Amino acid sequence: MKHFKLPDLGEGLQEAEIAHWHVSQGQRVEADQPLVSVETAKALVEIPAPYAGVVEKLFGAEGDVLHVGEPLVGFEGESSDAGTVVGRLEGGGEAARHDVFFIGAAPSTREHLAPRATPAVRQLARQLGVELGALSGSGAAGLITRADVEAAAESARERFGGERLRGVRRSMALNMARAHAEVVPVTLHGDADLQRWGAARDPLIRLAQAIAHACRVEPVLNSWFDGNALAVRRHAQLDLGIAVDTPDGLFVPVLRNVGQRSAEDLREGVARLRADVQARSIPPQEMLGATLTLSNFGTLFGRYASPVVLPPQVAILGAGGIRDEPVAWQGRVEIHPMLPLSLTFDHRVVTGGEAARFLQALVEALEAPSG
């Protein structure tokens, strides 16, 4: 059997949930024919057949979560590549036999042995909070399978009375756990006085332009951080993630090259991204590569926040709701529209001074008269 494995779906996407099979066992398919639709943290992705052949086996049912590199479809025929060895080697004859030695007293139980499971199953167990040592494997020679781990997690959920997270919300939970474990967040708050804008109150495009201006003042906030290598990769252009809230969860499509585009071009780009997100038709590549994120949560409700930085990004800006407030202006009290801002940055990479200068430059750009 030839194994076609779940391919790499893009930067940071290590797993996908099977949404719908387009083929069935025994069916002949042609190259590039749609095999399956999978749901990732970013979007629905259609995976085509890598070559023509007859489907011998489908690995996983709708609703199952697979990791990149795990078998997805088995095709009839001899495999020319055995793949990465993650379990025992099997074969015939004396060459296939191996001895296991224990130094010291002979054990009377199997407690000295580490649980037998593939790397993918171990990763799944870590993500679901399942202790492999407490499981009895149902696979060959006691190998713990994905089904064993998922059954243990489901049993724990039933005892807890909870509901299984899927799709975008499951990915959100995993991303938040990663951010909590890796990032050292600090948040600065400030306000922008919009009294020079006139009557218009559509801050998103002005915010994007102001962020691009501030990134030129403090470019470290337009970068990625490799925590393992303790290295920063800076970028020449700003690719800005725009947080879009939907009934299915939060999506962050990416607005490219913000600093080099006109206001009208940016407005059209944002409208297109939002429409694609709402229709769940946005290509996966349009959800990747943001170096800084803007959360315009004030369109829903709220003034200040502590937005969460998702690694490898180093900062996120939250914009609250615009309010008319009394301010001291040229020796008298006036009512001005004020935009509250919250900047969260990763203090492993960004100093307090850099963050403060960034926010100051951003506010100054916002407070300039509108064009």
From TrEMBL:
Keywords assigned: Acyltransferase, Lipoyl, Pyruvate, Transferase
Domain Lipoyl-binding: 1-76
Sequence similarity: Belongs to the 2-oxoacid dehydrogenase family.
Peripheral subunit-binding (PSBD) domain residues: 116-153
Any one GO CC term of the record: cytoplasm
Cofactor(s) required for function per UniProt: (R)-lipoate
Pfam families: 2-oxoacid_dh, Biotin_lipoyl, E3_binding
GO MF assignments: acetyltransferase activity; lipoic acid binding
Quaternary structure and partners: Forms a 24-polypeptide structural core with octahedral symmetry.
Ribosomal protein found in the keyword field: no
Protein name stated in the entry: Dihydrolipoamide acetyltransferase component of pyruvate dehydrogenase complex
E.C. number: 2.3.1.-
Catalytic EC class: transferase
